Amino acid sequence: MNPAGKFGPYGGGDTRLRSGGSQTGSDLVRSRVALRVRLKSVTPGDRLPDAGVLAEELGIGEITVRRALEGMCQDGLLDRRRGRAGGTFVAADWDTVVALMHDAEEAALLDSFHLLLECGLVAHGAGEVPEGSLEGLRSLVAEMDLAEDPARLVELETRFHLDLAELLGGAGIREFAADLLGRQCLLQPPPDPAVVRARNRCHADLLTELGRGAMDPAVRAVKEHQRARPS
Ligand SMILES: [Zn+2]
Questions:
Q1: Domains (range + CATH), the chain
Q2: Spans in the chain with pLDDT lower than 50
Q3: How far away, in angstroms, is 157 Cα from ligand 1 center?
Q4: 155 CA from centroid of ligand 1 (Å)
Q5: What is the maximal distance between C-alpha atoms in the chain?
């Protein structure tokens, strides 16, 4: 084999990120289960939908889903229970297991991909955002300002970015953002609530600028979000 790797000397030893949108079915299952936990559509201790249901929702084969769930059980992210009340459950210590999987380098790469995606979407869409379509995002920002529960805050933060991607890029781009954000959920612990609150100021600024069709300040707000720290 070519010593530089199958696809040539693109640098780095890790092929996971290089696949871009064409991640494996197993990666898809992992990232989407992680995203569901982040969005609290399932919580630690909850039973996951059956493999057949997940396969249909994700548009991939049931065998792939079963294999991916098996891998997640081996990693300690999920628990398999037998018997009548059996099934596949989100591990009660999900957060602890995720903390052990921490990979700062890959998380940072995904972060910069997501930043580029958002900057591109905002630059592309600014000036063409229909009147009234920002209302859903504005109410998320208002809800985040009031949220006390850290998990709720992080959930709303994730929703904001998924909804923003959909508003500016459509359903396919929402899925693309979901890939990036879902994979991140498994590589780094959720952001600190104080950081999310600081980011929420950037969300508000971004919506203001999008509302008046100001592209440069809108892109700046996206970049500020990345740097936001509690004051
Ligand atoms: Zn945010």
A1: 25-97 (1.10.10.10), 102-227 (1.20.120.530)
A2: 1-21
A3: 5
A4: 10
A5: 58
